[in-house]
Amino acid sequence: MRDMGIEGAWVMEPRIFHDDRGSFHEWFRAPDLHEAAGYGLGLAQANCSVSARGTLRGVHFADVPPGQAKYVTCVRGAVLDVVVDLRTGSPTYRAWEAVRLDDREHRAVHLAEGLGHAFMALTDDATVVYLCSRGYAPAREHGVHPLDPALGIDWPSGITPVLSGKDAAAPTLAEAERAGLLPSYEACARWYADLREWAADGTGAPRVPVSRG
Predict the structure, then answer these.
(1) Disulfide engineering: 167 pairs with which of 58, 137, 163, 199, CB 3.0-4.6 Å?
(2) Is 142 one of the annotated active-site residues of the chain?
């Protein structure tokens, strides 16, 4: 797995085996993720979205703790996948990194709890599947407008973004920060440390999130 330059974000670049029948690759390997992050992905939910070209989903994030880590790949078509550091106080706060995910290279992206996630469909019927460490919990989930100039995400030119009503009404980064919606880097760091500790002693993460104040 390759570090993306934002703490808690990695790209998995699998080896693909081709023959006259087709191809085979391993798109998720728990040991590789554990080696990179120091803890694994406690799978709670698996999602699949199909998007028309230009569909822009995100930037989505969840309260920490417990947050929601994601492991994302594109199994049909192509998307531009973007990770945004929304953790206030982080050395890379407001930074973003983009990776093309498609059905040719079969890359996958892992983003830790507290990071924002978005993607734009570059093709019709772009099919994205992602594994989540926590299930859907509307009260804990938030968004930042993906076209906010303060983020300055370099979305592909020549494609008109198509947003859901919810994403189009999402606050700007400044508005989300003033409202206290963004996770803090300190809280995220404590949560990552807890996850590593639970992974090391074999207890696993608790069902009910804890906070050390």
Answers:
(1) 163
(2) no
Given its phi and psi angles, is residue 119 left (phi above 0), alpha (psi -120 to 50 degrees) or beta? beta
What phi and psi values does residue 115 have, to the nearest 5 degrees?
A: -85, 150
Phi, psi values for residue 186, rounded to 5°: -60, -45
3-state DSSP assignment of residue 28: coil
> Which of the following is catalytic: 71, 106, 110, 130?
130
The answer to whether 34 touches 40, Cβ cutoff 8 Å, is: yes
Catalytic residue among 39, 60, 71, 145: 60
Annotation marks residue 18 as catalytic: no
pLDDT, one tens digit per residue, over 126-184 is: 999 999 999 999 999 999 999 999 999 999 999 999 999 999 999 999 999 999 999 99
